[in-house]
Write a structure and sequence with these properties.
It holds the Pfam family F420H2_quin_red. This protein has 141 residues and is of the alpha+beta class. Helices cover 34% and strands 35% of the residues. It is built from 4 helices and 7 strands; from the N terminus they run αββββαββααβ. It has a 6-stranded antiparallel β-barrel with strand order 2-3-4-7-6-5.
Amino acid sequence: MRKSFFSVLNAVILFLYRITGGRIGMFGKHSGLLLLTTIGRRSGKKRTLPLRYIREDQTYILVASYGGSPHHPAWYLNLKHHPDVIVTIGANTQNMRAEIASPEQRQQLWPLVLERAPLYGKYQQRTTREIPLVLLYPVEK
């Protein structure tokens, strides 16, 4: 049931995001909603979903929390296999490269994540896995 609920919810958010040009996805100056397009690790098909991001300078940070589930989200597993992604923020679409934050980077960035999005702290408490951070960097054409 959880998967089908989130599939429907994501479809609704994608629709609203696209028809409003991303205006529904702002959480403040340093945070918002983006559309992440990955390549499925098994299917090879493009997969697009809305995700909250946290911005620090020119880096976009994604939190692979999956709501505190014991498992990593599919998008995270997909980008581990195919790190070149397409990111849409508002009306702007850009090619980006995803990198999993190193343990040192995560240790440095985690307090910033909790400051800007405290709910992730509750998700971390729900699971025994360390919730990974993903860093998105623009790719020059």
